[in-house]
């Protein structure tokens, strides 16, 4: 694994990881991590893909991992305005790096959780730059709830500032994910996976589990409205192979319901989409008890493109 810093148009350093211990390269996986985590967590998965002829490249988003400047209170913060678009454009920066350094190799994007929302946004804006899309732990949210969320976040940003750590909005959104699993422990993160060791590592990681700033919540809700817009979806390539993967016990996808809804919306838009729901697994299927099966299935999808 190598680490480098790429510079976005606004001069921001984007911390990036490259796993390239590969012989006879088949392609590049551009991995897009989720909220409140970072790319290095995917080390084992990336090594597995390396062993199977795939290079993996992933950047820490703004507000996350080593891209977040802790002295400037950037953990959980994207930008004052247009944060979602900025994050998507950062992915385009990484994609350009891949094209420049690994020419003539196919690029497939894998996005997990918030990363799946970013990847959907990327496929709308820059779909011609990738050859496939894996969406892990994705969902379809209520338009009414999202619009309400944007209004609340804008109002709170005006009152408390863009970098306000917003426990109030977190309580209304993320906190509810653990409701079904509270009896298993008191960490609040049991919903992530059945694997207790994975939950422990998440909790002990100082770069995981941060509460978003008010502006980041606003950006997330606006991003979700954008990717669920009918016109936006119509801009996605009809020939782009897409697969939705999720655990049946994942609260983000409402235990499969919101994933199936996304699948149906994509089907209606005549997108080339497949669906795989893993029985009993929770949100982080790439780190859960059947992670080897998920990794093998992902590899099959990549190799079939």
Automatic annotation (TrEMBL):
Q: Which domain of life is it from?
A: Bacteria
PANTHER family in the record: PHOSPHOLIPASE-RELATED
Q: Which organism is it from?
A: Spiroplasma cantharicola
The protein's matches in InterPro entries, at most eight in alphabetical order, are given as: AB_hydrolase_fold, Hydrolase_4, MAG_DAG_Lipase
Its protein name is: Lysophospholipase
| Domain spans labelled Serine aminopeptidase S33 | 24-289
